[in-house]
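Input for the complex:
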Amino acid sequence: MEIITLQSFLIVSLILFLTGLYTIVSRKNIIGIYMGIELILNSSALNFASFSRFAGRGLEGQVFSIFIIVLAAAEAAVALALLLAVFKRQRGIDADKLNILKG
Amino acid sequence: MQEFVMKYGFLLLVFPLLGAFLNGIFGRYILRRYGEAPIGLLACASVFMSFVLSIAVFLALNDSENGSRIICNAYTWLNAGNLRADAAFLFDPLSSIMILVVTGVGLLIHIYSLGYMKGDSGYYRFFAYLNLFIFSMLLLVLADNMFLMFIGWEGVGLCSYLLISFWYTEKENAIAGNKAFIVNRIGDAGFLIGIFILFWAVRQGLAAAGTFDTEGLSILSFQFLEKNISLLNGIELYGASAATIICLCLFIGATGKSAQIPLYVWLPDAMAGPTPVSALIHAATMVTAGVYMIGRLNFLFAMSPLALGIIAATGAVTALFAATIGCAQFDIKKILAYSTISQLGYMFLGMGVSAYSAGIFHLMTHAFFKACLFLGAGSVIIGMHHEQDIRNMGGVRKYMPVTFAAFLIAMLSISGIPPLAGFFSKDEILWKTWESGHHILWLTGLATAGLTAFYMTRLLVLTFFGKNRGSKKDCAVHKIKESPFSMTMPLIVLALFSAAAGFLGLPEALGGFNRFEFFLSPVFGSHRGASHESMEYMLTAASAIVAVIGIFSGVFFYLVKPELPARIAKKIRPIYNLIYNKYFIDELYSFIFVSGTGIITAVLSAFDRYVIDLTVNLSGYILRLMAHIIDWFDRRAVDGIVNSAAGITLIAGAYLRKAQTGRLQAYVMLLIIALAIGVFYKAIF
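Predicted:
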């Protein structure tokens, strides 16, 4: 009998997801929000890996996890570039002040 | 000779037409550049050429054995289906006499006009019209079929109109021209309808006979009609015999052109034209067209005794009626005009009693003496400086001896004094009337003869005898002088003819041989009735006596006791007024027809104004009203729907935009809540 089961992974993943979600909702700083998004991505990557591991169907999930990591890196580059542009324009990166698309 | 006429007969018409054309187109230029002489020469020369040709025709007809008829076929004018009309000219004794009269009297009057129209600004226009008239008249006379005759018939009407209103700057003349034209138009309509019915009836007759073979003749040509007139037997129209209806329609045309009751009213007014025109057109030639037409179609009229009776009665009544009016007129030309109407009545009387050659004989002698009288009157009018009222004349005899002599001869001739021409021709008609049994008509004619002698004497006495009464022109008396030779020469010639022409038709009862009737017998046949010589002597004597009585009473009333007529006139004032005002016929016509037309136009105008305009306006108004309604609907309903759709969208947008806060966290929260709801929903159900 194994101590570490699928549920353990899923619980960790859930904690990560909820932490990320909370971060997104609560932070005013865009970088903070971005960090929350990263947490959610990672929770999903963990889910892929763990399901793949316990389903016993090869390495498809692990491959997806690596894809997600790579994508997150690329996304970080784009997001940071956008943040710089926003900062230049808005003199700040407060999410509440980014409301020029308000109806 | 016959060959020549057959080939070149149409030249007779070409010369006057050419003259009219040249004078009409280039006259103004010639007048300005070369003066009056070439214009007059051209006009006279063209008529002279026609006159020479007329003599040639006459001789050709005389020396031919069987040739009572020569036809010159110029070309086929109309050829449409069953209808064919050739531009063909018929030369027979009747038309040859007519063309001799037309061109002969026409030539004399052309010469007369040279002097009469001297100095008129419309000199070339006058001669162009006159030549055109000669052309139209010759066309009328020589036409070989009804259509061509109708062209001439209309042509002379047109020339008459143009010449009556020759001095058109005066409104009175223009109105007189219009009157002549319109009254003639009424007659012409009858004439035209007559031709139509004739055409229809002949076609019917041919169909009934089962043949359409016309031997190459046009069915409206006189040749064909004369030969085949029996085709009309039994053809009926509206229950009457077609021949009677045709004759009456044609006679309506004749009453218009020849100034008979009821269409005579235009002729007295036509005296507004220059005097030579009155002489040529309104006395000698054009007005006799109706008589000629009846003579030409005598075979047709012979088929309808009823129509002939009407013609005779109309002629006799017109003769008496016009003669009474003539007794109370004061305008020298008007008296002559009424006299013309009266004499034309005689001719119709002659035609009506089938004394065709007598009618044509009177037509010819009348052309001579009436043209002479008119030209004499014209001479006097010129001499008196355009005075036409005989009350202001008198004593002219001393100043104008030649005019007086000619006038006297013509006046005695028209009065019927033997042995002048008028006596023979008039007597011939009266005798034939008696012989045919129309004793009342004979009496009417006899009374007219007396009246004619009376009013002509009155005219002569008032004009030429006594003292000059020129009230406003006292000084003018010394200036009255005889007219130039170009005017007196035609007078003399015409006077000679009015004296001598009667011997052409000397009746056998008076020891003569009626050459005239014999010459015309190929056309009219010989109507030699039983000889009542003693009766004829008595009637002849009666008419001569009546004429003498007329003259003596004229002399008595106006020369011996000049104050008597006024006293008598005062005594019978109502009758005198009636006659003086021409029986108020003009007023009657103006009341019935002119005002009648006025009333009809007023009614029609009111109908237009109040019914048609109302309908149009009402429909316009209704359309406008509907347009307003549709406009309102468009504006309110259609636009309202569109606009309110837009408005609703706007309002909805205004509310919905509030959801777009632009705050990231809000969006995320919404996302989470929606997700939560979705999860819970899934979990519960």
